[in-house]
């Protein structure tokens, strides 16, 4: 008789029916050549010279096997220069931001949702990485493109 730990039996019972549908893990790294996609892949933010501000963006991160199927229950690490919260809360009041870098596991559909709270200074233009994610050998990121508008083009300073 072959002895097998219950956790292996439970993982097998869950993953074997999904074998043709998805790749499974037990908190392990994504498979070799994992593809990590972030949705949205990027977004724009208009800024006005002389005014600072902040905004919120929801981001879904998905780990996919090389064949394009979702990887369920695999380890993922995320990082950001901005403040990040788990999930898609309707309000950030009273919530504790994640300590970054943050390690998590993909859900039953191979995804994890985050909320990015980002802010900008009084003069900013350009592309900035908002969130980056790793799973196994896979890496993905999403960027914010800040576009500065100068309300007074006749007088310095100008937008960068």
Q: What does the model show?
A:
With 160 residues, the protein is mostly beta strands. It has a single domain (6-149), classed as Immunoglobulin-like (Sandwich). It has one helix at 6-18; strands at residues 23-24, 35-39, 42-48, 53-64, 71-72, 75-79, 83-86, 102-105, 111-120, 126-135, 138-149. A hairpin with a 2-residue loop joins strand 10 (126-135) and strand 11 (138-149). The chain starts with 5 loop residues before the first helix and ends in an 11-residue tail after the last strand.
Provide the β-strand percentage band: over 45%
Counted beta strands: 11
Total helices: the number is 1
Domain unit count: 1
In CATH, the topology is named Immunoglobulin-like
Task: Report strand order across the widest sheet.
Answer: 3-11-10-6-8
- Rounded to the nearest angstrom, the distance between the terminal CA atoms is 71 Å
Going by helix content, strand content and strand pairing, the class is: mainly beta
Can you summarize the main beta sheet? Answer: 5 strands, mixed
Mean pLDDT equals: 87
CATH superfamily: Immunoglobulins
What's the Cα radius of gyration?
A: 20 Å
Report the top-level CATH class.
Answer: Mainly Beta
Any idea what the shape is?
A: elongated
Which consecutive residue ranges, at least 5 long each, have pLDDT under 50?
11-23
Write the element-wise H/E pattern from the N-terminal end onward: HEEEEEEEEEEE
By CATH, the architecture is named Sandwich
- Helical fraction: under 10%
């Amino acid at each position: 008789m072959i002895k097998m730990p219950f956790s292996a039996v439970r993982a097998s019972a869950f993953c074997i029916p999904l074998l043709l549908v998805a790749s499974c893990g037990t908190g392990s790294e994504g498979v070799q050549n994992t593809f990590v996609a972030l949705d949205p892949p990027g977004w724009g933010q208009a800024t006005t010279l002389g005014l600072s501000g902040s905004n919120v963006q929801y981001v879904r991160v998905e780990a996919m096997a090389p064949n394009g199927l979702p990887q369920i229950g695999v380890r993922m690490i995320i990082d950001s220069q901005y403040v990040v919260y788990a999930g898609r809360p309707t309000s950030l009041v009273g919530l504790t931001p994640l300590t970054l870098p943050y390690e998590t596991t993909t859900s039953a559909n191979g995804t994890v949702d985050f909320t990015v709270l980002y802010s900008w200074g009084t003069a900013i233009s350009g592309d900035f990485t908002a969130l980056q994610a790793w799973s196994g050998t896979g890496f993905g990121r999403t960027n914010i493109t800040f576009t500065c508008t100068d309300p007074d083009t006749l007088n310095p300073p100008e937008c960068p």
